[in-house]
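As a warm-up, study this chain.
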Amino acid sequence: MKWPLLIRLVVLALLIAFLVTPESFAFLLQPLTKNGQPAIYDRGSLWSLTLSHLTITFAATVAATIVAVGLAILVTRPFGAEFLPLSRSLANIGQTFPPVAVLALAVPILGFGTAPTLVALFLYGLLPIFENSLTGLTTLPPAVTEAARGMGMTGTQRLTRVELPLALPVILGGVRLSTVISLATATIGSTVAARTLGEVIIAGLTASNTAFVLQGGLIVAVLAVLIYDGLSAFERFLVARTGRAQQEAA
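Now compare it with the structure written out below.
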């Protein structure tokens, strides 16, 4: 087994152990507390908060992926090319509009809880996926697409059997970036009562408990690194497979 993989597995095992039995690690965080403060977050289950955090991130990323890839497909077809500037502007607005402002605007309409956080993460995650999908679909080898056209494939067949499979590694690169951004940004959802790991960080800030802040931040950071590495490995696998497919087509 390669060392980088072994290190990641050890880190994953430690993270799971901390989430399941956090009190076992209290001695490491105790020096960061003062005046008898608890070293481990005691206002809820870290395991439950982490699952809720991941669920919100996953739901927002899936929704952003469906919309962003759909838009990219639309604007790369002859009948939708005129919508490219509008689609790009909408995706850019979603990325540049501060998530905190989105939450402030969404709460009066959707109320407190998970819904405003999902809207903020969805908008924030659109741009990387849209741009990567656009790049993947517009930089396909002309010889491959011409070969598909020469075989008599319809537009739908070329899209589903040739263009999307070949563009998938590039699209996945955008999904990877969007997922990591959403994972970190989801912490602000706790300011509007969404159940995320931001609860732990906010509790630490309000109680001046550095141990809470550190454990909330560390869990998010470790999850981001592991998910980023996992998706990168999957992306490399797809790139290798796509390369073999192109060689076979040539």
